[in-house]
Amino acid sequence: MTSKIESFLHNPAFGVALTLLLYCLAVYFKRRRGWGWIHPLILTSGIIMVVLQVGDIPLAWYKSGGDWISWALGPATVALAVPLYKHAPLIRSKLTAVLAGITIGSIVSAVSTACFLAASGASSQLLFSALSKSSSAPFSMAIASRLGGIPELAAALSVLTGLLGSLAGPALLRLCGVKEDVPLGAAVGTGSHGIGTARLMSMSELQGSVSGFAMASAGLITSLLMLPVYWWLSQ
Questions:
Q1: In angstroms, how far apart are the furthest CA atoms of the chain?
Q2: 153-162: per-residue pLDDT in tens?
Q3: What is the pLDDT of residue 102?
Q4: How far is residue 102's CA from residue 91's CA, in Å, rounded to a whole number?
Q5: Hey, CA dihedral for 49, 37, 159, 82, is it positive or negative?
Q6: Helices H, strands E: what count in the chain?
Q7: How far is CA 114 from the centre of its chain?
Q8: Can you tell me the distance from the alpha carbon of 25 to that of 200, in angstroms, rounded to the nearest whole number?
């Protein structure tokens, strides 16, 4: 590898340019070429891993630019407040039903995860890392660190949950007869947080707004649900 190429790969611009180029290409083929089965986020991540592996490029070189994109997730999440404010009257009119659905969804997620891992003989550390997988990564990491889990594993499980929910969630919900914007958005936001919200926002502003509200609410509700577990562990 020549010094010029190595210098370019060290530059944060490499990680940013590679990510944006691949993502834009994935979106182009999905929208303009009729490849509706493509999930831009999954395809982009997969190709980046292949490029790094084949090119023998250290992850740290890519990460110096990739961190810039990770930082942009903060302002992008805050920007969800704009469509949420726009559709606030509709969400407020159905607030009781939406919050009930989010609460039940959060409880079912935590209980089903605990039952499955306990039945499979998983360690307590893995269990406490996975309990909050359906909330966004910052919530999951904070909860896992308090319960004695592994924050990094909690973040990875949260991202995987979001990816799977984003990929199959909307279609599965419609197959089950959930087709209206508000319940669909609430379900995806509760189970698939930010990644699922981004998917819905590209399809419907109303669905994305409800999903963004559900994502934030699910994080808070999950945190409250974990308080008895934390107090029990502290005894």
A1: 62
A2: 888 888 888 8
A3: 92
A4: 13
A5: positive
A6: 13, 0
A7: 20
A8: 20
